[in-house]
Amino acid sequence: MRPWFRRLALAALIAAALGGVGVAALFSALDRPGPLGGPAIVVVPKGKGLGPIAGLLGKQGVISSPLVFMAGVRLTGNQGRLRAGEFEFPAGITPRGVMEVLISGATVVRKLTIPEGATTAQAIRHLHGAYGLMGELLRTPEEGALLPDTYHYSYGDERDEVISRMEQAMVDEMTRLWRSRAPGSLLTSPQEAIILASIVERETALGAERPLIAAVFLNRLRRGMALQSDPTVAYGTALRDAVPDRVLRRALTRADLAAPGPYNTYLNKGLPPQPIANPGRASIEAVLHPAKTKALYFVADGNGGHVFADTLAEHNRNVRRWRRIRKQREAGGGSSGNGTSGL
C-alpha cells in the first residue's frame, strides 16, 4: 500500500472516530491555538507511546483534544519521532506547534552554579538538590578537583556525568592558566597552584585583593615562614570534628590554633597537603600572577577588606587598630566581622 493511500485511509478512520469530522477540518484543528493561558513546563517521561504522551499533554492543559493531537501526529508521519524530556510550551501553542517542539528535542536548559570557594562536599550537595538530575554519584572527587562555574543540563541528565564535566573543566582551565603563569613562579606544579588558590579564595572575597594576598603567602613561602592562615586551620578542624560539608561555622579557638594537624599552617611550614576548597579562576590567576609587593602580613581593616604590612611592627599596629574597631563594634552590639586573617 502506497504511503499516501495509507494516510488517506488512516484519515478516513480518524475522521469517523471523531464523529465524521472531515480531514480538512482535522488539519485546521492542528493549527488552532490551544488552551494554554501562559507558558507551561511539562516533563515527558522516557518510553512513553503516543497515547500516554497525548493524555499527559491534555491533562496538563497544553492541548484541548488528545485525540486530535494523536491524529495529527499519525497523519503527518511523525509517530515514533516524539522525544522525551522537559519541554516548555508557550501560551496558546497549537497542537502542530506542540508536535514540532517534541520532535525538535529542544528541552528546557537548566543551570547549576557551584560558587567559588565551595568545598567538594558542598558541590555534591548542590548536585543532589538540582531539580531534574538523576542517579547517584559513583565516586567522590578530591577537594580542589572541581571548577566553580555555572553548568547547563537537561532534565534526566546523570549527576555523575555533570560532576565529570566539572572535573574536566578544572583540568582544562588549570592547563591553560598554568601555561601562562608568570616567569619564575615559586609554585612547582598545578596542584600546588590549586592548593594556594584555595587558601586565597577563603581569605578574601574581594577580587582586587587576591593578587596581594597571593603575593603575601608566596613571600612567606620564599622566606621559609609559616603561612599562618586561619582558613586552613578551620578546614582541618572541620575534618577533625567530622563536619559534613567541611566548613567550620564557629570562631577558631586558641586550642584549635595549637592543635597539631596537617592543615595547621601556624605549626607547619609550607603548603597544606591538599586544597581546602575548590578555587575559582580569579584565585588561580592570582597565585600564578601575584602582585609585586614585599608585604608579609595582612589583617582585617574593618571594612570588609584587609590592610597589608611589610614588617611585623607595622603589622602589630594594624592588628591593634583592628582590635579597637572590633571592640567598639562589640560594645555597640554590632557584628565583629570575620576577625583577623591569622597573620
Overview of this protein structure:
45% of the residues lie in helices and 8% in strands. With 343 residues, it is mainly alpha-helical. The strands form three sheets. Strands 1-2 form a two-stranded antiparallel sheet. A two-stranded antiparallel sheet has the order 3-4. The relative contact order is 0.09.
Features:
mainly alpha; two-stranded antiparallel ribbon; Dna Ligase, domain 1; 343 residues
Largest sheet: 2 strands, antiparallel
| Structural shape | elongated
What count of helical segments does DSSP give? Answer: 13
The strand line-up of the biggest sheet is: 1-2
Based on helices, strands and strand pairing, what is the structural class? mainly alpha
**Count of extended strands:** 6
Q: Beta fraction of the residues?
A: 5-15%
Distance between the termini: 86 Å
Percent helix range = 40-55%
Poorly predicted ranges: 335-340
Q: Give the domain tally.
A: 3
Order of helices and strands: HHEHHEHEHEHHHHHHEEH
What is Rg? 30 Å
Give average pLDDT, whole number: 91
Quick description:
With 343 residues, this protein is mainly alpha-helical.
List the helices and strands and how they pair.
Blueprint: H1 3-17, H2 23-30, E1 40-44, H3 50-59, H4 66-75, E2 85-89, H5 95-104, E3 110-113, H6 120-129, E4 150-153, H7 159-179, H8 190-203, H9 210-222, H10 230-240, H11 254-258, H12 281-288, E5 297-300, E6 306-309, H13 312-331
Antiparallel strand pairs: 1-2, 3-4, 5-6
